[in-house]
Amino acid sequence: MLTSPDAPKDPLSALPSHPPAQEQDCVVVITREVPHQTASDFVQDSAASHQSEPEVYERRVCFLLLQLCNGLEHLKEHGIIHRDLCLENLLLVHCAPQASPDPSSATSWAPPTTIPPAPAATPSSCPSAALPAGVTPTPPAGPACQGGPGEKHLPRLIISNFLKAKQKPGGTTNLQQKKSQARLAPEIVSASQYRKFDEFQTGILIYELLHQPNPFEVRAQLREQDYRQEDLPPLPALSLYSPGLQRLAHLLLQADPIKRIRIGEAKRVLQCLLWGPRRELVEQPGPSEEVLCATLSNWIDMKRALMMMKFAEKAVDRRRGVELEDWLCCQYLASAEPGALLQSLKLLQLL
């Protein structure tokens, strides 16, 4: 499987007595779903569409970033820091909607409860709040990821290449290992130098997904001194998502890691960008925080009711399947609460 491309095709001539002419590095990815491209390929192929349909493209970028945040949040629950987030290490899988199940088999709507033993890195699209955000099981009634062409549907994002990943010490049941870990210095146990490493690289990815260069490559002075948000290059304002994505990138690229937002906060900001609430809802003159929370609570209830109606319509019409976007929205509404929404709106400077 890993022989050089120059090696002979005849299996008999590829025996150990006939080693390949030269050795080559090879990355092998084992995954349940076969990716059709990397995020780097996606960015290269979509340069023209970003200019012709900026709203559609940047909305898709928000969805890809949301899936990335879901996966990273799951990894952090297991104490894992990826440390090598780049476009080449993000894989995309075709994901087409699945038709509604037969009403007689209602049990197929229940999400799976088993969790894979490996530290999964694929964001979950299941709306159940009981499943961790990065678990890969796909519910039978959810979106079916296939290898056929499905560019009009949102692709599923898979985080790959954990060669540089770090895992924080802890969580072991071995008595000897616990004794050894009890002698580690606090900065080693907490992995403080890597604590918001993935957040920083996610901020760089926002620039690259929007066809902009890594700001730390084009402005070398940013690496040599403490910088302010104003020193970071602005993103082109091409759609209604552009200002929010720029704000998010700046929050993730804070020079001071203490001020840098966490990946969970970034996820909630992206959810607000995609599904609201919009500025008009909270732009009442001089409302108290209590009034705003009550308004947001009503908004959440209304959105949940509309989502249930949407699922009901798709269940009746067999031709309309449940898409990945629907599951991600359902996941958002299932966990949304007024206090967190208020904080996200403040981060987006909508309040």
Automatic annotation (TrEMBL):
Biased composition (Low complexity): 101-112, 121-136
Residue ranges constituting the Protein kinase domain according to the UniProt record: 1-274
Listed Pfam families: PK_Tyr_Ser-Thr
Region: Disordered, residue numbers: 1-20, 101-150
GO MF: ATP binding; protein kinase activity
PROSITE patterns in alphabetical order: PROTEIN_KINASE_DOM, PROTEIN_KINASE_TYR
Residue stretches spanning the membrane: none
Gene3D superfamilies per UniProt: Transferase(Phosphotransferase) domain 1
Family: Belongs to the protein kinase superfamily.
Name of the featured protein: Protein kinase domain-containing protein
Native source species: Eschrichtius robustus (California gray whale)
